[in-house]
Amino acid sequence: MAQPTAIIESTGVEGCNGSSSLAPALATIGHGQTFLAQYGSYTHNFKLLFYEESMEIRRFRTGDESALFQVFLSAVHDIASRDYTTAQIEAWAQADRAPEVWASRMRELRPFIAEAEGEIAGYADIQPNGYIDHFFVSGAYSRQGVGTLLMSRIHDEAELLGISELTAEVSKTAEPFFLRHGFQVVQRGFPIRQGVILQNALMRKDLHHKT
Length: 211
Ligand SMILES: CC(C)(COP(=O)(O)OP(=O)(O)OC[C@H]1O[C@@H](n2cnc3c(N)ncnc32)[C@H](O)[C@@H]1OP(=O)(O)O)[C@@H](O)C(=O)NCCC(=O)NCCS
Hints:
The protein is an alpha+beta fold. It has helices at residues 23-26, 65-79, 86-92, 99-109, 146-161, 175-180; strands spanning 5-10, 18-20, 34-39, 42-51, 55-59, 112-116, 119-124, 131-132, 135-137, 165-171, 184-189, 192-193, 196-197, 200-206. The chain is built from six helices and 14 strands. A hairpin with a 2-residue loop joins strand 6 and strand 7 (119-124). Helix 2 packs across helix 4 (99-109). The protein starts with a strand and ends in a 5-residue tail after the last strand. It binds coenzyme A.
């Protein structure tokens, strides 16, 4: 089994999160607990999340496509269905979508994959202009930190590629998650899918202002 990983997540103040291998030093704090940390004169609230199991974030591989479709369906039907009507959910994520169209889209997006013990728990992409097109976590893994791991990997990639801002068109369901990760709402949108109006928000994060 892999070493436990500690994710130190910011609580409250914008834009300060990241992964750490300081698990032993932080072990006394305990999973899920918040603590204050000080960097010079800067004091900040953090929450500690441990991952005892090996949740790996890896790059997309050809062959992942159909598993990603199941994650997408689960995320929309099991999680987002709390915030959208049945008609909106059906219009957003139809189970009979043409597999070859989906597969070719995934091969274009080449998302990061969160995988535990061979099972894909979530996926999210970042495009060269900083746009996040897909961000989905399976219902079975909701609120277990998978989205945070993917978001952390996206930030690492943005830094690697010199990307200065992240943008996404974010569902009502995901808005609190994106806010939590330092994004702000730029504009509310009402896209039409299959003749049904959905609600979302264009959200943005300026990476130059990271604290
Ligand atoms: C949004 C989504 C990706 C979040 O993934 P996740 O793995 O559940 O997120 P995490 O466990 O890392 O959440 C981290 C924090 O974000 C916030 N958060 C996440 N989901 C939230 C929700 N539904 N409501 C309020 N806050 C939420 C919380 O602060 C959470 O910390 P907590 O669980 O300790 O309170 C996932 O819920 C999802 O796939 N939703 C449905 C599909 C969707 O709308 N995708 C986005 C399309 S743009």
